[in-house]
Amino acid sequence: MRTVIIGTPTKLRKVTAKDLPADKVLDFSFWRWVDISGLDLTPYSMENVDVINYRAAGAALPSCHYSQFRFPIDNTGITIPPDVSSYNHDLVVEVFRQASNASDPMIQKIAAYVSGGYDRSWRDGLHHLMQGTTLQDVFSTLGKSLVGYPLLLSRLKSHHDSGAVSAEKEVVQDLTKFNIGAPGDTINLSVPPSFDRWATARMLEMQLQTTHKQSSKSKVWIPQLHPTPIVLIDDRKGEWWQGYEQHG
């Protein structure tokens, strides 16, 4: 059952077991300005959940397929699921901080660099580490820190195999426009400052039907809204997004 829990910047909403549904399904929930510190969420389903501006020290996360954790206040001691996606910028940083070789200067350097902003990612992070060492040493050291996280290892391998290493950073895009089709076929959308992907998708579906005269069968799924929006549209029934690669 989708839940919406929102605190304020000055008073985080403490989430407890009483706030969680009896069916243990939190899919498509939206939590902002929340404190989930110490909360064991492993018994719950948390697909397509947004957790924004949060404190999660000592929390335990379940598999979080397609969920987005953004703008953490404190992730110290958080238990991260083995299948964490490389799209979860801050959880990846915490994986490095908790790694068996976390004291290695290279691991400390990559954690500090990537945590510096959402425009920093794998491509430029790897390039940042190359000063005074070889690329092979970089891949070897990072590989040791990602043991037990197959999707992160897959992402690292993809950069190794493709040579996708450069100083070019990610572009944090304007969230007021989505290009959903051919050039020029752009929907102007005022995204709620809450970054609620479920609510944004429903708004976009309404615009598809009213402005673009598309079928009411057209359903929108947003695997990522920040920093780079990704919008997928399909008219198939059910959970057609299952299997979408979120670690490439």
Give a quick set of tags describing it:
248 residues, globular, alpha/beta
Give a verbal description of the structure.
The chain is α/β, with parallel strands linked by helices. It folds into 3 domains: 1-79, no CATH class; 82-170, no CATH class; 177-234. Helices cover 27% and strands 17% of the residues. The chain has 6 helices and 9 strands; from the N terminus they run βββββαααααββαββ. It has helices spanning 89-98, 105-114, 122-129, 135-145, 150-162, 197-210, and strands at residues 4-6, 13-14, 30-35, 50-55, 68-74, 177-179, 186-188, 219-224, 230-234. Strands 1, 2, 3, 4 and 5 form a 5-stranded parallel sheet that branches. A two-stranded antiparallel sheet has the order 6-7. Strands 8-9 form a two-stranded antiparallel ribbon. Strand 6 (177-179) and strand 7 form a beta hairpin. The protein is globular, with a radius of gyration of 19 Å. The relative contact order is 0.11.
